Fold:
Amino acid sequence: MTVGEMSAINPHISRSSTIEATDLTVAWKISHTRLGEVGRIHPELWRLIALDLASRLEQRNLFVNRVNARPRVFMICSTEALAIARTIRVGLEHTAEIVIWSDEKIFPPGAYPIEALEEQVNQADFGIALAEPDDLIRSRDRKAAVPRDNVIFELGFFMSRLGRHRSLLLVPRAIDVKLPSDFKGLIPITYEKAPKSKDLSVALGPTIDKIAGIVADMGVSSSLTDVK
Structure:
């Protein structure tokens, strides 16, 4: 049977779609009353219909996000900023599940990075990008500090799927970091780069508190369409 299975069993349910066969197809046009009569004579029919419906539900579930038990945050950063990311993870451990791109099995050897990234964004409720000024570029005869290209790309990727309110940009305080013009209007969260004499967790405390407040306020994403 096709998309009319449910309406054939229950006439009060309207058909949700129409299909067009592209190959030679055998169709069985039957009323719900006659279907019930045939089912009483051949009860195996109901098992076959149930198996087909279960298969369709399983296929549909591939495109529906399961709601996380607690907020899941994916952190994007350069290798040089891993110490900052790990400190933030420790500070948020009671607020959310924090995943950092460098974690084992996130980008397994031999896999396509974009596919692994798609899997992570499908599971995440928030994306956080650390815009550490790791590189220098010359633009219009001026040098500027910029984040790594992959950090900017991945932040944009998360913004397109989760929305800008669930995609947080972290920039170091008192450092001029050049960002793409597309990010104008996005209010970043600043963080303190601790001097050697200061504990990193103490320096990042206010930033961790701000992130925790946002995550607690917005909570888990209810669906793929929960974009603000």
About this structure: Residues 5-61 form one domain. The chain has a mean pLDDT of 81.
